[in-house]
Amino acid sequence: MPRFERLTVEEARTLSRNELLPRIEEEQKFWYERMNSGQMRVGDDDAFKTFNRIMHIVINPDRAASADLVSGAPEEQDYWTKPLGELGHL
After folding, report:
1. Quick count: other Cβ atoms within 10 Å of Cβ 58?
2. pTM for the whole thing?
3. pLDDT tens digits, residue range 34-57?
4. Considering the domain boundaries, does residue 24 fall inside one?
5. In which domain of life is the source organism classified (predicted)?
């Protein structure tokens, strides 16, 4: 089994939401295990905050469902397919 690698902001900027969702699910499992087994280490709090920031930007359903009030068009046509860095969301 390949070694688990945490997401970084730099990496998340290069991936689309579709590409990030499976990675987020894996990292959620990692953090859930670590927290519930009492294995948090010094420095994990910053890493968890970074992951949480990425996760909330990626899965924010309010932004995905929001529309431009003037035109009624979706805020960003490429919301799920463009890398987050290109969209300026991270």
Report:
1. 24
2. 0.70
3. 999 999 899 899 999 999 988 988
4. yes
5. Bacteria
Q: Which domain holds residue 20?
A: 9-87
Q: Which residues contact 57 (CB under 8 A, 6 or more apart)?
A: 12, 84, 89, 90
- Within a domain: residue 70? yes
Task: Give the E-state strand segments of the chain in sequence order.
Answer: none
Domain total in the chain: 1
Residue 17 near residue 84 (C-beta atoms within 8 A): yes
- On whether residue 4 sits in a domain, the answer given is no
Residue 2 is assigned to a structural domain of this protein: no
Q: Does pLDDT of 70 surpass 80?
A: no
